[in-house]
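Exercise 7. Predict the structure of Recombinase from Bacteroides intestinalis.
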Amino acid sequence: MKQKSLTGFMNEVIEDLCQQERFATAHIYTYALRAFTEFIGGGEIFFGGLNKSSLRRFQRHLEDLLRSYNTISTYIRALRAVYNRAVDRELIPGEFRLFSGLKTGVTSERKLAVTASQMNRLLTPPTPCTELPEEVCQAQDSLKLMLLLQGMPYTDLAHLHKKDIQGDLLTCRRCKTGTELCVKVVPEAMRLINLYRNQDSSSPYLLNFLSGTLKGEAAFNEYGRKLRNLNFQLTRLSELCGVGDIKVSSYTARHTWATLAKYCHVPEEMISEGLGHSSLEVTRTYLKSFDGDELAKANRMIINYIYSGKKKLWSRA
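Solution. The predicted structure, encoded as tokens:
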């Protein structure tokens, strides 16, 4: 039987990921294969072309192109995942420590959080004589809502379902990890939820950010367009609010919430729970110590810090 090539096998994996509707991972694998193919010089690549020498030269090639550490790491990890899958299927024998010494970690290369005063300027409308454009205003509301909901990621916010909210309690599962996330909705957040509440009875989504009519890759692409536009409008927002020297994106609310919580001495375990980072088992353990009221208290303390500029240290009293 003819041995599968790396190119052929990786395309099979990408197709399989698409069938599982794991489009984000499929896109990463596609870009990684494209980058490695261009580095090799085009054409079909066989597994023999994936060796320690070629991988190290590929990494140096990406560095010469000034690709970020995380981009290089993402591409190499994609190649490693496909290589390991081929080994598991006994398509190739595998080489010991083939990927050792390469960039496969993740690093924070730029500041993602802003200070309390900077966030205050982003969330507080400019002077009365300056009115924000409608799309910028909507992006500002999204930023505010993500912050008010304990640094909720935009993907989780956009994909909230109508059934996820009962009264002032929001319970959902994170899109990325499936971890359960519980948030007590503060009045400021509820006003924004009501402002953007989806009125289409046929849509499952709580907010009107996504149509709710698309499936599969079309839905993934719709979300990607919304996210790119949000980030573009947030850049405009930072400029209009006089903080254009800082990078503002969909990540800003999440990292700012966590950073300010730590700055106010909120226990790291509670921050982890608030962000939905914990496994379900760990979350249940923490819930014995940190009930919903305490987490809501921490969230309110962070919100007050942003709007008043007065820091108050966490106390369980």
